[in-house]
Amino acid sequence: MTWKIMYNKILICLLAPLFLSSCYSFKGASLSQDLKTIQINNIRMETAGGPTNLGLTINEKVKEYFQRNTTLKIINQNPDLLLEGTIVGYEMTPQAPTSDDKAGLNRLTLKIQFSLVNRLDETKNFDQEFSFYQDFPQNQTLTQVEKNLIPKLVDQIILDLFNKIAGDW
């Protein structure tokens, strides 16, 4: 292989990722540049069941997600965005009955009502329930699977919430 061919291959390998990344963008997945601050109030628990620290866990994950994925500064007064949430559902229900009338699967569902006040653009305000579920085998107890399922439920709800706030999906 000649030096010139090797040089061209190396150049292509180095420049291709830069070129490809500049060609791709997320449609509408950004916040207005006028938005500088957000206040995330403590998530309230208004349902029976679930771990006692669930509201705190969700609250911290929401804050972490916004800190990691936006330039918004989290403050406690006069924010551009005010986010409030209430856990309104934490339910386990039987799914997929088997031939002997027992559930083959159980389903854990988490529901959180979020309201957003955008002080710079009132048309972006909303009050909406976000929910997600995960199924697990009926031979496992909720206590056995909660530790693994709750993070998945919370992560998906936060992603859906973020897409609602920042996206035009």
| Beta-strand content estimate | 25-35%
Order of helices and strands: HEEHEEEEH
Indicate the percent of residues in helices: 25-40%
Label the structural class.
alpha/beta
- Overall pLDDT, averaged? 84
Overall body shape:
elongated
Give the termini separation.
49 Å
- Oligomerization state of this entry? single chain
Largest sheet: 6 strands, mixed
CATH top level? Alpha Beta
CATH architecture: 2-Layer Sandwich
* Low-confidence runs of at least 5 consecutive residues: 15-29
Radius of gyration: 22 Å
Specify the CATH homologous superfamily: Lipoprotein like domain
Question: Counting H and I runs of at least 4 residues, what is the number of helices?
Answer: 3
Q: Would you count the extended β strands for me?
A: 6
Q: How many domain units?
A: 1
CATH topology: Double Stranded RNA Binding Domain
How would you describe this protein?
- With 169 residues, the protein is of the alpha/beta class.
- Helix content is 37%, strand content 31%.
- It has three helices and six strands.
- The longest helix has 25 residues, at 142-166.
List the helices and strands and how they pair.
Layout (H helix, E strand, L loop, with lengths): L2 H21 L13 E4 L3 E2 L8 H16 L3 E2 L6 E17 L5 E16 L7 E12 L4 H25 L3
Helix pairs in contact: 2-3
Quick summary:
The protein is α/β, with parallel strands linked by helices and 169 residues long. Helix content is 37%, strand content 31%.
Keyword list:
169 residues, alpha/beta, Double Stranded RNA Binding Domain, 6-stranded mixed β-sheet, 37% helix, 31% strand
